[in-house]
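Fig. S4 source data, part A: sequence.
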Amino acid sequence: MAKSNAERQKAYRAGRARAGDNGELRINTFVTTSAALGLKRLAKHYAVTQRAMLERLIGDADKAVSAPMDDADFEQYLRGGA
């Protein structure tokens, strides 16, 4: 018997968790219109997808925050501490 659309989607999403080098996590959230339009403009400007642009922005911000940290502060940062 053929799978329903919901079953196919569930299987696809389950496989994404193991995709690539480190798997993937789904982010589902609302942002302001200005943030969404800004992301769209940035992605178009750099000729990348919105996903790639968002990953770049987050990666750059994460590196900027963690770069000056010593080992103890970095370990706390990785654990989600302030």
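Fig. S4 source data, part B ends here. The chain has a mean pLDDT of 90.
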